[in-house]
Amino acid sequence: MSFYDIRILYWRELRSALRERGILVNSILIPLFLYPVMFWMMISAFSFVQGQQERFVSRIALIGLTAAHDELRASLADDESIELVEAPPDWSAAIQSGDLDVVAELLPPSSDAAGLGDNFLLRLSFDASKDRSQTARVRMDSKVDDYRAAWLERSGEELGLAPAEWQRFRTDRHNVATGDEMGAFLLGLIVPMMMVIMIALGCFYPAVDATAGERERSTWETLMTVSASRSSIVMAKYLYVATLGGLAGLLNLFALSLSMRAILAPMLGADSAGLDFRIPYAALPLMALSAVLLAMFVAAGMMILASFARTFKEGQSMVGPLYMVCILPTFLVQSPDLELTAKWALVPIANIALMFREVIAGVYQWPLIGLTLAVQMATVALCLAVARYVLSFEDVLVGSYSGSFGKFLKGRWSQRGKSTGEAS
Amino acid sequence: MSGEIRVQVTGLTKSFFDEGRGEVYAVRGIDFDCREGEIFGLLGANGAGKTTTLRMLSTILQPSGGRAEVMGHSVSTAPELVRRSLGFYSASTALYPRLTARETIEFFARINRYPRDQVAARVAALIERFGITEFADARVDKLSSGMKQKVSLARTMAHDPPILIFDEPTVGLDVLNALELQTMIQELRAEGKTILFSTHIMSEAERLCDRIAIIHRGEILTCDTLDGLREATGCRYLEDIFVKYVRAGESAEDAAETGSKLDAGPAFDAET
Fold it and tell me: How confident is residue B270, by pLDDT bands cut at 50, 70 and 90?
């Protein structure tokens, strides 16, 4: 293997790649702009739906509301988003068909509450499967809550009781997590998954393009005639795929650290008060190193599979399942209770995803981080050894082998000792 | 034949394992040599073993048996040195579509270890020689097929190798481009290059080759100059010579299969 050759081949690959729209989009533009664009679209869609809902006039019918509750009726009538209508005889069917949104029915109080003369039960009938009906129910709830609060206060005053006396006790929620911790918790759910997806996506197209794509374009044979050794050629291609995968991961990290705070905070509105969505600077070097290791692993795996393909389409279908396998462990990280333990540190990809989550939260379990990195490096080494073994077979290297990786392993295992075209 | 021997092939064999047919021989123990300033033609029908032979010589494939040396380097033990000594051109060696013509030639010069300080001058000289100055900085995928062919030839010669292998180079070319290529090959011979040339087009072999090896079913049936072949067969046209050798070879093979005792070489009656 010659570093001089690898350098020349590597730059040739990169130069070609940066002129290919598909690679630019998947490895650079999507990781960099996906979040801002995706979140902007989400916010726009959210605002649009909310705006549409706010524009609805809720059609509410009141049944059995006596003059004693004129205050409630007046409050509903004053609200421009509510239209009081007459309840049709079959009002239940009218709600289901969407002609009516909510029916508020004044009923006699049930059980113990029947003791007091002016008690009543207000039943709100609505259709939970209809947005419009749900919105009307929420509006009605709010009006009824206000009415109840005023009613209670007035009744308390008549009895000479201050609110503190008749309320007896109140509940007050107090979150002891700091804004940093809450921000880290939310980021920890999103960032690891997106990083792994982006790295896998960043490797996917270049891995197929550098192997099956070359064969399809008939440049593979041209490359086989240059004086560089086969191992230099394969190494240059591998480094190129890993570079684009790593680049996708790092750009993604950069985009995340810039856009999360700016985009998530307005989306969460008042709930975001005090939350900090910044990825801690101290975590960035470790995350960058892990992203590179992950890219090296994914690149090796994808190249092994893609080297069996003879066309780009074949390559995509061969590498596709690995893409899914890479993403699968990141769903585990969505469980907030899962922590990086020695056992999890032995599981590639899941270990990196869990480690990402912990370092974002400022938790550094150095022995487990060390184990995670060691496992990741061992996995990369194993993949490279498999790649070397696979590409030592002439038919795979020159692209005359017809079949998948699984078929290859099965075939070579059953033909041990026979001539199989292994390069000597 | 004068000039140093640059390619020496002895008992070269290539077999593949096929699940259905078992061990399949594409090339069976062939021998030949090529010299400086010579155009050596491998003439054979499709599937005769021409491409496999040239692929072994250019180290794309590993021989299953026998020896082949290029500029004294074994294709089995020193493949990088062999590849540095030759340029390989075939219809299946395409160009990188996203590089420009200039970048393509430069890349092949560098990767084949042309002296670093002379690469720029070499690239400029090749661009001039092939008349692609106007398109030198255009991406290859934007070029016409004639231009691509010129760039392809230029990249084959980028590192100025002493040996050039052309595997059915005129396949898919129109008459004018094919003639231009043949002229180029003759010029290269005049410069002292060794040319290995495979074709199934008789007129091409007749026009270009100093010596011709007729290859059939992985075996070389004969190897001589065109005059030598004419003398041996009594035929004037290469097509007739080719058919005669192939038929005789097939008869000998059939006879061997049925158990007849025959001498190794093909036998035929001379005729004018």
Answer: very low
Residue B90 with chain A: CB contacts under 8 Å:
221
Sort out which chain A residues have CB atoms less than 8 A from B60's CB and list them: 221, 224-225, 398
Q: Which residues, other chains included, contact A320 with Cβ-Cβ below 8 Å and sequence gap of 6+?
A: none
Domains detected in chain A: 3-44+179-414 (no CATH), 57-167 (3.40.190)
Which candidate from A228, A394, A415 shows the least CB-CB separation from B61?
A: A394
Name every chain A residue with its beta carbon within 8 A of the beta carbon of B107.
8, 12
φ, ψ for residue A57, nearest 5 deg: -100, 120
The two structure tokens encoding residue A94: 């009218």
| Min Cα separation B22/chain A (Å) | 10
How far, rounded to the nearest angstrom, does the alpha carbon of residue A255 sit from its chain's CA centroid? 15
d(CA B242, CA B239): 5
Q: pTM for the whole thing? A: 0.76
Distance of alpha carbon B100 from alpha carbon B5, whole angstroms? 36
User: Rg of chain A over CA atoms, in angstroms?
Assistant: 32
Inter-chain CB proximity B23 and A222 less than 8 Å: no
> Taking the domain B5-93+162-257, which CATH number applies?
3.40.50.300
Distance CA A256, CA A191 (A): 8
Distance in Å, alpha carbon of A401 to nearest chain B alpha carbon: 11
- Are the beta carbons of B67 and B74 closer than 8 angstroms? yes
Q: pLDDT-derived band of residue A364, with 50, 70 and 90 as boundaries? A: confident
> What ipTM, to 2 d.p.?
0.84
Does the distance separating the beta carbons of A415 and B94 come in below 8 Å? no
Residue in B closest to A228 by C-alpha:
B80
Query: Scanning every residue of chain A, which has its alpha carbon at the shortest distance from the alpha carbon of B87?
Result: A225
For residue A320, the surrounding DSSP H or E stretch is helix A312-332
Determine the straight-line distance between the first and last CA of chain B, rounded to whole angstroms. 26
Question: Residue A198 corresponds to which tokens in the numbers above?
Answer: 């982006």
- For the segment A247-286, what is each residue's pLDDT rounded down to a tens digit? 888 888 778 777 776 666 666 665 556 666 677 788 888 8
| B112 neighbourhood in chain A, CB within 8 Å | 226-227
Q: Tokens at residue A218, please? A: 């008939």
CA gap A84, A73 in Å, rounded: 9
Nearest CB among A20, A222, A398 relative to B94 is that of A222
Structure-token pair, residue A49: 């739906």
Q: Domain extents for chain B?
A: 5-93+162-257
